[in-house]
C-alpha cells in the first residue's frame, strides 16, 4: 500500500461519519469478516483510521481498492459538493439502444483517446444510475485520485449530472459523453445545487407532484362575519386568488430542493425616470440568478404572499412547468 493509497484512505475516513463507518466497510467487502470484527468502532476516529490503514496494508490493498470504497460512500451519499447539470441533444437513431457494457467501453475508449493518464471507474447503482469516477492526469503525471470528478447518467435519458469538474477537463468529458451516448451535442442545463436528488427529481420528473390547472381542493370558507368591512373581504379574496394561482403553477405538495437557477433575458428597459434607456430601440440584454436553500418553495411563497405578482410570470413558472430555466424572454411592448 503506497503513500497515495494511505493518503486517499485517511482523507476518505475523515469524510465518512462515524455512524456510517461499519456499514460502509461491510458493503466494501475488501476486508475479511474477521478483520472487520477486530475494529472497535467505539474508539476515536483517529484510532479507527490508524487501525484500518494497518489492516489495509496487511491485505496489500491498492489505490484501486480505496477508490471502490470512495465510490460506495459517494453513491450512498450523493447530496454533497456542487452538482452541475447538462443536457444531451440531437440523439442518433440508435441512441435509445445503448446499453451499459457498450457505454462503458465507448466512454473509456473515447476519453483515453482525448486524454493521457486518465483513470476511469464505472459502476451501476441500484436505482439504474450509471456512476462514473474520473481521475485526471496531466502530461506525464499519474492520475490525481485526490481530485476526482464524479458523473451520474441514466442511460436513455438526456440528462447528465457532474461534480468537481475543472474547466480544463470539461470539454474532454463532455465530448466523451456525447460520443458514447450517441448524441450530436451537449449543453449546460444551468441548474446546480448540492442536492443531486433534487436536481434529478426536477429534471426527470421522478417526484410525486402534479401541477393542476385548478387548485385541487376548494379553499376553506372564511368564517368572517358579514359585519366585516368590505376592504377586508377584498383583501381575503385577493389572498385566496394568489394562493390559487400559486397552486396552479407550483402545486401544493413537496417540491425538489433546487438551490439556484440562471436566466438570460432580452427585454425592453422600463423606467420612466431614465429616458435614455427607455427610448433605446435595441433590447436590453442581461443575466439573472436566483439562489435559495429551496428555490421552488421560495418562488411559491413569493407568489402566494404577494411579493411576486400573479399570474406567475414565465420567468418563474418555467422551472416547474417545463423543467428548464435557460431561455430568452423577449418583451416588445413599447412605451411601458
Automatic annotation (TrEMBL):
UniProt main location, coarse: nucleus
An annotated GO BP: chromosome segregation
Localisation: Chromosome, Centromere; Nucleus
UniProt keyword Nucleus present: yes
Cellular component GO terms, alphabetical: chromosome, centromeric region; nucleoplasm
Tree of life domain: Eukaryota
Coiled coil (residue ranges): none
Keyword terms: Centromere, Chromosome, Nucleus
Family per record: Belongs to the CENP-N/CHL4 family.
Name the UniProt record assigns to this protein: Centromere protein N
Organism: Poecilia mexicana
Amino acid at each position: 500500500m503506497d503513500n497515495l493509497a494511505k493518503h486517499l484512505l485517511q482523507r476518505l475516513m475523515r469524510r465518512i461519519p462515524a455512524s456510517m463507518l461499519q456499514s460502509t466497510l461491510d458493503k466494501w467487502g475488501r476486508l475479511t469478516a474477521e478483520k472487520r470484527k477486530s475494529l472497535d468502532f467505539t474508539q476515536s476516529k483517529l484510532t479507527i483510521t490508524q487501525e484500518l490503514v494497518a489492516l489495509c496494508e496487511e491485505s496489500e490493498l491498492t489505490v484501486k481498492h480505496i477508490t471502490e470504497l470512495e465510490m460506495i460512500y459517494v453513491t450512498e451519499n450523493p447530496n454533497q459538493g456542487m452538482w452541475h447539470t447538462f443536457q444531451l441533444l440531437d440523439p442518433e437513431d440508435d441512441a435509445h439502444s445503448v446499453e451499459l457494457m457498450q457505454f462503458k467501453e465507448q466512454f473509456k475508449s473515447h476519453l483515453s483517446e482525448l486524454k493521457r493518464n486518465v483513470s476511469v471507474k464505472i459502476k451501476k447503482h441500484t436505482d439504474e444510475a450509471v456512476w462514473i469516477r474520473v481521475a485526471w492526469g496531466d502530461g506525464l503525471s499519474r492520475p490525481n485520485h485526490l481530485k476526482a470528478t464524479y458523473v451520474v447518467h441514466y442511460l436513455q435519458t438526456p440528462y447528465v449530472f457532474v461534480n468537481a469538474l475543472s474547466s480544463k477537463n470539461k470539454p474532454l468529458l463532455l465530448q466523451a459523453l456525447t460520443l458514447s451516448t450517441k448524441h450530436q451535442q451537449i449543453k449546460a442545463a444551468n441548474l446546480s445545487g448540492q442536492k443531486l436528488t433534487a436536481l434529478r427529481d426536477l429534471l426527470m420528473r421522478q417526484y410525486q407532484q402534479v401541477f393542476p390547472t385548478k387548485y385541487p381542493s376548494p379553499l376553506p370558507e372564511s368564517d368572517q362575519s358579514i359585519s366585516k368591512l368590505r376592504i377586508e373581504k377584498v383583501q381575503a379574496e385577493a389572498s385566496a386568488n394568489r394562493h390559487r394561482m400559486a397552486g396552479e403553477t407550483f402545486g401544493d405538495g413537496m417540491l425538489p430542493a433546487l438551490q439556484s437557477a440562471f436566466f438570460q433575458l432580452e427585454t425592453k428597459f422600463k423606467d420612466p425616470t431614465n429616458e435614455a434607456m427607455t427610448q433605446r430601440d435595441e433590447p436590453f440584454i442581461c443575466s439573472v440568478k436566483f439562489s435559495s436553500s429551496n428555490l421552488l418553495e421560495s418562488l411559491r411563497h413569493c407568489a402566494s404572499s404577494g411579493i411576486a405578482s400573479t399570474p406567475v410570470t414565465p420567468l418563474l413558472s418555467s422551472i416547474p412547468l417545463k423543467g428548464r430555466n435557460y431561455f430568452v424572454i423577449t418583451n416588445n411592448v413599447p412605451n411601458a
